[in-house]
Amino acid sequence: METDRAMKSSQAPPSTAPPLLEVRELGKQYNGFTAVAGISFTVQTGECFGLLGPNGAGKTSAIRMIYGASPPTAGSLHVFGLDITPDWRRIRARIGVCQQDNTLDPDLSVLQNLLIFAGYFGIPREQAKRRAKELLHFFALDKKSDAKVGDLSGGLARRLTLARALINEPELVILDEPTTGLDPQSRHLLWDRLHALRARGTTFILTTHYMEEAAQLCDRLVIMDHGQILVEGTPQELINDHVGQSLIELTGTQQEDLQRFLQEKNVAFDVMGERLVIYSNGDTALEQAIHEKFCSRECTFRAATLEDVFLRLTGRELRE
Amino acid sequence: MIQLSNLSWRFLRVWRRNLIVYRKIWKVNFMVPLLEPTFYILAFGIGFRGLISEVSYDQHPLTYTQFIAPALVAISIMYNAFFETTYASFVRMYYQKTFDGMMTTPLSLEEIVLAEIVWSATKATAAATIMSMVLALLGYVTLPQGLLIVPLAFLGGLAFGSVGMVFTGIIPSIDMFNLPTFLFITPMFLFSGTFFPVAGLPAWAQTAALGFPLYHLVELSRYCCLGLIEGSILVSLGYLTVFLLIFFWISLVVMRRRLIK
């Protein structure tokens, strides 16, 4: 029920233009293992679309199919209205990809990384130089122009990777975990730049493990697990539909009484080891009651976040 | 499936990337082919002079140094191409993930593989050219016929580059390149009419040597350097061409299987 509602509300973006990306029943199997099991979604021009899910959910497999590095084994995939299988070259000329691994060329300097990459796109030399200069400036890499890539810190390398992904002025940018492993400063700088690019109308597809990042950047997102899409919607819709506005977290004793109390009152909750999460959904009377009766010790009343949705839907057990 | 439609002149952009990296340390890259023949000629020329008076090749008496000089060029072509598409390409593919990055651009895997092989042939040609110039100065290569080494080195480079690429496509870890080096490159290095004429081998070994691509490269190299050949120019050229086409094809198949998942 809830899932249906989320789907419907997000299926009608304001524009009626053909979608920039259309994925239908897309599947990927290798060596008998199903990495992606029939997913469908669309992304409109100018949107930032998030693909979320635990490790091994099939995000990177899906992303690799979108940029034509991995042939789909089922379903269809259209980017800019073009079919990925015959038209992968034309599609790649118009997209930029920031991969999860560092694929910068360590044999080349920072500037050369951009210029040589521009060459792969067939961008004329003068234009490439101009564009590289702009991008180095945009990502505050001006002073590192002649540095060796191997000497760059993680944050600088990621900025350069993103700069490189933008060398062909892509209409669609694919970011696979762009901020994983970065310090907060680097992460905020990157977010800041992504916001600036969004303001210019660039379309984004993003995978991330940081729910705060997804909530901040994505207009719409899907949560995947085991190769399938569990839910789709805007961050706020997903929060409202799956965990409500607010929740209570408590640890320690008296849980049995509390659980009985919650069951009587028909209130949703999850038990996670020592912790109990109660989806109070803005019911102040209920929160008051729980506070008085059960919160002798650790009790946290807080607003629900996308992370709560994520954990509720994909479970708490470790994946790897 | 291999799609030849995925091959275009765009491969030259990847080739250019390797050239730019090569030029960064061109002095080191030039030093080896410049010094290597000099060392060999000195060692063998002086060392074996007293032991081996002359070698008969194509019914011509040659000094031992004259006999091995063209083989050194052929060996250098083999080494330069084979080690480029094995160790060097493997590092780019596996450790540096350079190919993964390239595959987000309008380049196909087929173009990347072709570029690596053509690059290895280019490197082999540069080394062979420098080497023959040194050997010509020392009097072991006759000019202008010796200039034919340039196209020959490119052909030989493509052949050995292709077979190296096949190993890169199937090898699980970089240490395992020791195996093809030990089982394939080293026997060829020794038994391809390089340091002694194959005529000195038992009949079965002579026949086996005919199957070695290096044997044909050495034959052709002697022809380029000295104008002498015991076998047939056309057979050797044909052998190298067919060898190259077969292994280029296999390299595309195994690299696709390895990288396109």
TrEMBL record, chain B:
InterPro entries on file: ABC2_TM, ABC2_TM_bact-type, ABC_2_transport, Nod_factor_ABC_transporter
Places the protein is found: Cell membrane; Membrane
Keyword list, A-Z: Cell membrane, Membrane, Transmembrane, Transmembrane helix, Transport
Domain of life: Bacteria
Residue stretches in coiled coil: none
A GO CC annotation given for this chain: ATP-binding cassette (ABC) transporter complex
One Pfam family from the record: ABC2_membrane
Principal location: membrane
Molecular functions (GO terms): ABC-type transporter activity
TM regions (residue ranges): 30-52, 64-83, 124-143, 149-170, 182-205, 236-255
Domain ABC transmembrane type-2: 28-258
Bilayer disposition of the protein: Multi-pass membrane protein
Annotated family: Belongs to the ABC-2 integral membrane protein family.
UniProt cross-references to PANTHER family, sorted A to Z: NODULATION PROTEIN J
Protein name per its UniProtKB record: Transport permease protein
Classification of source organism: Bacteria, Pseudomonadati, Thermodesulfobacteriota, Desulfobulbia, Desulfobulbales
